[in-house]
Amino acid sequence: MAEVKGIEGGRTPDGEARFGIIASKFNSAVVDNLVKGCVQTLQEQGVAARRITVVKVPGAFEIPFAARKMAMSGDYDALIALGAVIRGETSHFDYVAGECARGITEVSADLDIPILFGVLTTETMQQAAARAGGDSGNKGAAAALAAIEMVNLLRELGK
Hints:
- The protein is built from five helices and six strands.
- The longest helix has 20 residues, at 92-111.
- Strands 2-1-3-4 form a four-stranded parallel beta sheet, with helices on both faces. The chain has a two-stranded antiparallel sheet with strand order 5-6.
- It is of the alpha/beta class.
- It has helices at residues 28-44, 63-73, 92-111, 125-130, 139-157; strands at 19-24, 52-57, 78-86, 115-122, 132-134, 137-138.
- It starts with 18 loop residues before the first strand and ends with a helix.
- The chain has a single domain, classed as Lumazine/riboflavin synthase (Rossmann fold, 3-Layer(aba) Sandwich), CATH 3.40.50.
């Protein structure tokens, strides 16, 4: 039986990778913790602060637009979208969460750049807080690790 080649990206950045973070200002009590976990994890993994840019947008709905502009600049190897959409009494949640996800997917595919989805979509503020440094960890930190892995994978595939 022939050996199958496996390719995966490691979690050690090469020192040259550049990361852009797009963070929603809405639900800032939650999102600020996601950003903190994301930036801290990138730096703990060896990414220099000068290689990290944080852009703040009004809400999750605006994340895809900013992601497109950042991707078009060619200045980033990966983008990380961070936000928190928490269900309320109306269908607003469905529209914002769905369009945010769709927009990020579209930008990533159109512009050939990994965009990690760290936008929480929860039923309650307590669930969001648990995922932003609480009992369920920090999804911003998880997105940072995944971004590093994707940059490394793309470099490996490009060899």
